[in-house]
Amino acid sequence: MALIYRAHFAFIHNPIRNSQGVNTSALYGFTNTLLQILENEGPTHLGVAFDTSAPTPRHEIFPAYKAQRDQMPEELAAAIPFVKDLCRAFHLPILEIDGFEADDLIGTLAKRAERDGSFHTFMVTPDKDFAQLVSPAVTMWKPGRKGSEREILDLTATLAKWDIQRTEQVIDILGLMGDASDNIPGVPGIGEKTAQKLIAEFDSVENLIANVGKLKGKLKERIEQNAEQAILSKHLATIITDAPVDVPFEKLLLEPRDDAAVKELFNRFEFRTLTRRLFNEDGSPTPPPAGKGTSNGPTNTSTPTLFETFKRIGDVPHTYHIADTAEKQAELFALLAAQPRFCFDIETTSLDRFTARLLGVAFSWAAHEAWYLPVTDLTVQLPALAKALGSPAEKIGHNLKYDLGVLLNHGVCVKGPLFDTMLVHQLIAPDQRHGMDYLAECLLGYTPITLADLHLANQAAADAEPAPAGADDLFAFAHKTRASKEIDVAAIPLAKIAEYAAEDADVTWQIAEKLRPGLVESGQQAVYQNVEAPLLPVLVNMEMEGISIDIPALGDIAAELQIQITGLAASISTHAGRPFNLASPKQLGEILFTHLGLADKAKKTKTGQFKTDEATLATLEGKHPIITDILAWRESTKLKSTYLDALPTHLVPRTGRIHTNFHQLVAATGRLASTDPNLQNIPIRTPAGRQIRKAFIPRVGFTLLSCDYSQIELRVMAALANDASMIDAFRRDLDIHAATAAKVFGVAEDAVTADMRRTAKMVNFGIIYGISAFGLSQRLGIPRTEAAGIIDAYFREYPAIRDFMETTITEARANGYVATLTGRRRYFPDITSGNQNIRGNAERAAINTPIQGTAADMIKLAMVKVADLLRERSAETRMLLQVHDELVFDLAYVEAAELVPQILEVMSNALPLPHSVPVKVEHGTGPNWLAAH
Fold first, then answer.
1. Which secondary structure element, helix H or strand E, spans residue 923, and what is its range?
2. Is the same domain home to 536 and 557?
3. Residues 447, 388: one domain?
4. Residue 253 forms beta bridges with which residues?
5. CATH code, 141
6. How many CB atoms lie within 10 A of CB 85?
7. Beta 878-883 vs 886-892: how paired, if at all?
8. Residues 6+ apart with CB under 8 A from 780
9. Number of domains in the chain
10. Residue 630: enclosing H or E segment and its boundaries?
11. Up-side HSE of residue 729: CA atoms within 13 Å toward CB?
12. Cα separation, 16 vs 30, whole angstroms
């Protein structure tokens, strides 16, 4: 059960799903661990223990046992029958008994095998409680995390880890310290270190209680007051070793698996890599890896790595050429000129776009064939390279934005059309990983050699340490001795780097051929061709352009903000009645809830600390002035560290400007994101956030131009819903929030108060995100019944909005996805969940996605078309930033009068909305970003 839980939550932020949307994370992770054991540990007997839902003896003596645990996630519960199917296909006994936990079944069998004397038992578990069962004949086999090796905890290792004399003393330590995960109370105030010291001195909980007089102070008081609870906790932590497990050892003997059943399961859940791992292309079982045993006998205990699963460069015939002479280079460029499409991949000395030196370019236009062009004299090679990459041929690559940026920095402009395998896969399978190596393994059954492999082999040669010659051995060597220091790519011999680069181009070409049909089948071809592909070079140009920062101004703003932070900290200490570490959630929680008593039933984290996150504090606003100060202090310190202190470190010395990285498809709705630095999250509604924008300035001879879509998501919602009333308000260019307030509160527009407008604005934007009466009541500080009345009035006035929301949810349930106006899809496997909270979250996201996603598509299309406009006019004006619904430009003064109206027109018509809903773009200019906005 622990393995199943672990596998499910290991992928919780990026679940593995098959094409039907079934979450297969738990099954996939469990299967991987099972295969690791079968292939590498050579067990003779094997059983798989499961919990049941029936109460255990622990619940009888302590009803609160595990009561704090959240209900098992629905998708995890659904996976358990599949895991059992897998066990049956492998002919593995399933062990489960009502009234007993899986721990008890494992403990019973382990101790029975120990008494038998013929076995050495390995308990496969990450659970620390099992340490109590370790003996000379019983060992813990703890699965590795994130690719690390499994850990073997034998008797010596266990005694050392817990600092005890006997493994049974683990139970005593758990009895004192408790276990939050199982809701075992222990003795309040005693942690693991104290418990270890006490047991080291007194041997057991019972002896400690009998000698409590030897203790002093608080510790003595805690033991005296909680003696019974300590005994109870020890009992709860004790694994039962005499459960009625009526399974003879003969039933646990490992048998040959049912290959047909295994293949059926793997096909059903689309485990292609696992299928290739166990079966040949003709369906026959693959032999065990070289040097490994079969499942019927002992083997060595090394951990399997990916190279044992997939084909590698030495397994596949290939032809890679090095264009290292003038004649070969002429041949390469002549061949490129004849290709309608080709793949390319650059090799550089660094990942920094501005300092990376171009070492070479690899090309491929057929599977298993590629060329590598070493860049030895760029001034000589530049014309031919620029001509090839500027041709009308389709250019294929993986994460092309980096390649395009480095090439542009070297004077080479790559022209489209472009096919970026990373972006295409993000559109086709947004919930999966998108790295080239991962795609190669999933789609091609092939593991490319890594740069670290080459580096280590080269380093070994340089150190006169003979690197293994074979491909398998090279991979083993690299994985065994992988270094963390930066790799000097230029030091790798030409033949090796050429093979590495050519393989990347070859593999990416093959991946593209696999993905191309999927792009059509997924219905995302138009989105890619019309939006994402043409946006790619636009983002490259914006990133390389960067934006100027007034460093002295940043310093002044930082100094002012520090004064404010210091004042807030002093005020908070005064409110608290004593100084404390504001950055410590634990100390803050004790001040707010123990000392000040601001909540009768304060929420706690899984570790038992009081919750002090922003959402929790927001619910306490108005109860005490300390809350307002804490929220302000947090915002100010975050702004100072994230922007005022960090922005100067992002200046590129060569340009003197800041160059953010834009990400096209990180957000599920398609909205752009930015990192290094993140310029999307500088707040505009707070004074401190606005001050930061003052430090963004134009280059000399220019002014900053800001063009911002006005209330675009509301306009999109009105258009998608075809709500006549809201559309009319936009056509008349009314203040939409005042117009909404007038309708909801039943007053004339000129009678709308500021509070009414604020409420209407909250509802207008809240509806987009599926706000509830409870949510609205919290945000406005009004009773829930009043908030519900406001929402009901809103839907009476805008009935088409409610219809749109209901229709969207219905279509999402039927199709499994929703789409934007451009056809961009977002899938919602949880939309039919039986869990109301999970289903509700999916429904709210389904309502929001067509609205926010269409707005995101609109500004992306606007960026492409504005870039075309600037290029056609050979304008000096440059597009610099995209932040939510806003575009920022360095505007040449001499171009302003003619160019600005054209930019506004292009943005307004980038994606016409249904029902002729007008799109409004507001703009401003100024000597800094704040003034322009």
1. strand 921-926
2. no
3. yes
4. 45
5. 3.40.50.1010
6. 16
7. antiparallel
8. 758, 759, 762, 787
9. 4
10. helix 625-639
11. 22
12. 13
Report if residue 406 sits inside a domain.
yes
Where in the sequence is the domain holding 819, given as residue range(s)?
Answer: 713-854
Kindly state whether residues 524 and 623 are assigned to the same domain.
no
- Please indicate, yes or no, if residue 869 is contained in any of the structural domains: no
Question: Could you tell me the mean pLDDT of each successive run of 10 residues in the chain, 933 residues long?
Answer: 85 76 88 89 92 83 72 83 93 91 93 91 92 94 77 90 92 89 84 91 91 89 89 90 90 91 88 82 53 32 34 89 96 97 95 91 97 94 96 96 95 94 91 82 84 66 44 32 53 90 96 93 94 97 96 92 94 92 90 88 78 85 89 90 90 93 88 90 82 93 96 95 93 91 89 90 83 79 86 90 94 93 90 79 91 96 98 96 95 96 97 96 96 91
H or E element in which residue 832 lies? none
Tell me how far apart the alpha carbons of residues 878 and 540 are, in angstroms, rounded to a whole number. Answer: 12
The residue type found at 515 is: L
CATH number, domain at 419?
A: 3.30.420.10
Whether 492 and 508 share a structural domain = yes
The residues, ordered by sequence, that sit 6+ positions from 430 with a Cβ below 8 Å of its Cβ are: 665, 668, 826, 827
- Say how far apart CA 859 and CA 510 lie, in whole Å: 33
Measured CA to CA, the distance from residue 867 to residue 863 in angstroms comes to: 6
Residue 242: Cβ-neighbour burial (10 angstroms; 0-12, 13-18, 19+): exposed
pTM as predicted: 0.71
**Residue 74 falls inside a structural domain:** yes
**In-domain check, residue 824:** yes
Shared domain for 554 and 522, answered yes or no, is no
Token pair in block for residue 558: 């930082």
Number of H helices, E strands in the chain: 38, 23
- Statement to judge: residues 824 and 809 lie in one domain: yes
> Residue 141 phi/psi, 5° resolution?
-110, 100
